[in-house]
Amino acid sequence: MPQSPRETLIEGLRRLADEAGRAIMAHYGKAEASRKADDSPVTVADQAAEAIILAGLAQLDPGTPVVAEESVAKGESPERVGDRFWLVDPLDGTKEFLSQNGEFTVNIALVEHVVPTVGVVLAPALRTAYWSDGTAAWASIQGGAPRAIRARPGVPSALVAAVSRSHLDKDTLRYCAEHRVKETRAAGSSLKFGLVAAGEADVYPRFGRTMEWDTAAGHAVLRAAGGSVCDLQGHELRYGKPGFANPSFIARGRDA
Question: Distance of CA 194 to CAs 39, 191, 220, 241, Å?
Answer without folding.
Answer: 27, 5, 10, 24
